[in-house]
Specification:
Layout: H1 3-118
Length: 119
């Protein structure tokens, strides 16, 4: 093999290597673009996750406030119920006393009538 043939072979191999290198470089750039797209999507997902976490935190705070409010309302309703029970009981006692007073009044009036009839 002559030097020219050897040189042609070397040039041919170098040309194939360059072509192969350019092809691999193209694939590498494509993968790099895919990776960059993935990074962008990952950042978007992280933003969404932070937003969800923020909303969850807000929900927890509101739930705590509502629970506290519910407890206060239940305590007030219990107090109101106790007052109603007391007033109902007191009304029954008062009605009984009024009834007894009326009975005594009727008895006194009846006695006065009887006293007048004996005169």
């Amino acid at each position: 093999m002559t030097n020219d043939e050897k040189l042609d072979l070397i040039i041919e191999k170098i040309t194939r290597m360059e072509s192969n290198f350019e092809e691999r470089m193209g694939k590498f750039e494509e993968k790099q673009e895919n990776f960059e797209d993935f990074e962008v999507k990952l950042e978007e997902q992280q933003d969404k996750l932070e937003n969800i976490n923020s909303k969850t935190e807000t929900i927890f705070k509101q739930t705590a406030k509502l629970t506290e409010f519910r407890t206060e309302v239940n305590e007030k309703l219990d107090n109101i119920q106790n007052s109603i029970d007391f007033l109902t009981q007191k009304e029954a006692v008062n009605e009984r006393e009024i009834y007894n007073l009326k009975q005594q009044y009727k008895f006194l009036i009846h006695e006065k009538k009887e006293d007048k009839s004996f005169e």
